Amino acid sequence: MTNSPLSTGQKVARLALVGVVPLALIIVFLWAGGWLAPQRLSADKLATALQQSGGEHPGYRRNHAKGVCVIGEFRATGNASVFSRAPLFAQGATTPVTGRFAIAGGNPGAPDYAVPVRSMALLFQQADGQQWRTGMNAIPFFPVATVQGFYDQQVASRPDPATGKPDPARMKAFVLQHPEIKPFLAWIKGYVPSSSWSSDSFNSLNAFRFIDKSSAAHLVRWSMVAQTPRQPETAEEKTDKDFLQKDLAQRLANGPLKWDLMVTLAGAGDAGNDASKVWPADRQTINAGTLVVTRSLPQQQGPCNDINYDPLILPDGIAASDDPLLNARSAAYAKSYNQRTREQSEQAGHPL
C-alpha cells in the first residue's frame, strides 16, 4: 500500500500538533512559577513571606531553621498493616529513620524558649528503596484552613521594623479575614511549652490516606506520642537559648527516647481537606509502632541537613488527601531546599 503525500495544510497541522506538547509543558512551568499570573500565590511568594518573617539567613531553611538531627528506627506493631500495605507497617518490621527536631521560625539563632511551636520531621527508609517523609508539629491543629490564609498569616505577623513586633492593627484585620484562626489563638494563649523535645507529642495536622492490600483507601491522621512524661518549661530553662538541644543530648546519653505512632482513622463526615478542624476524640486510634531515637547530631553537616522533608514523598500504601496545604507545603519546601543548597554551595566556594 502506498501512502499519499501530505498536503501543505496537513504538514502545517502536524507540525502544530507536535509543538503543542512542549508549549503546554512550558505554560504549566510558567504557571507553576507564578509568572503567568502575578496575583497567584506561588511557591516563590510563600518562601519569600517566610524569609521576610524570619530574616535572611543564607544556607538555612526558611522555616524551622533552628534544629538538630536525630538517628533511630521505627519498630512496627503490625496493627496498621490492616489499613496500609506499606512494608514499614508489617508486624515485626524495623525501619531506619533519619529525623530532625526544630523550633518554628526562620532564625537559626533564636532562643529555644522564644518559640512555643516545635516540630519533628522524619524520613523512614524502607528496604525496597521507597521513603516516607513526614513533618509534624507539637500543636493540635493548623491555625488556618487554606494556602492563602497561611500566606496572609505570615504577612500579618511580620515584625514591624519600628517595634520588632507584629502590628496589632494588621493582625486584627487578618483575624477578621480568617476567623478560623480564633480557636488556635485561644489555644496558644493558654499553652505552656514543655521542658524537652523528648516529652513533646507531634501531630501530622494534615490528613492522608492509607491504602490497604485491596487498594481500599482509609482517611487518617497520625501523631508521635511521647513516652517521656511531660514537664512544663521552667524559669531556668528560659535563660538558656539552647536548652532543648542540651536536654536532648543529655537524655540520649542515658538511653534511647521513644514515641508511639498513633494513627487516627476518620469517621463519617470528617473532612480531609481542612487541617484547622480537630476530629472528634472518639475516633478509632491504633498504635502502629514505636519510634526509637538513639542519638543526636548538630544539623549543619549532619545527616538531616540535606534532607527535604517533603510531606508528599510517600511509599506505596500511603497517599495524599485533598488537603490544599499539602501541595503548598511541598512546593514551598522544594523552593526553600533549592535556595539553601545553592547558598551553602556558594558559601563553600562552589557556586552552582
From TrEMBL:
<dbReference type="InterPro" id="IPR018028">
    <property type="entry name" value="Catalase"/>
</dbReference>
<keyword id="KW-0479">Metal-binding</keyword>
<dbReference type="Pfam" id="PF00199">
    <property type="entry name" value="Catalase"/>
</dbReference>
<dbReference type="InterPro" id="IPR020835">
    <property type="entry name" value="Catalase_sf"/>
</dbReference>
<keyword id="KW-0575">Peroxidase</keyword>
<dbReference type="InterPro" id="IPR024168">
    <property type="entry name" value="Catalase_SrpA-type_pred"/>
</dbReference>
<comment type="similarity">
    <text>Belongs to the catalase family.</text>
</comment>
<keyword id="KW-0408">Iron</keyword>
<keyword id="KW-0560">Oxidoreductase</keyword>
<feature type="transmembrane region" description="Helical">
    <location>
        <begin position="12"/>
        <end position="36"/>
    </location>
</feature>
<keyword id="KW-0472">Membrane</keyword>
<keyword id="KW-0812">Transmembrane</keyword>
<protein>
    <recommendedName>
        <fullName>Catalase-related peroxidase</fullName>
        <ecNumber>1.11.1.-</ecNumber>
    </recommendedName>
</protein>
<feature type="domain" description="Catalase core">
    <location>
        <begin position="16"/>
        <end position="352"/>
    </location>
</feature>
<keyword id="KW-0349">Heme</keyword>
<keyword id="KW-1133">Transmembrane helix</keyword>
<dbReference type="InterPro" id="IPR011614">
    <property type="entry name" value="Catalase_core"/>
</dbReference>
<comment type="function">
    <text>Has an organic peroxide-dependent peroxidase activity.</text>
</comment>
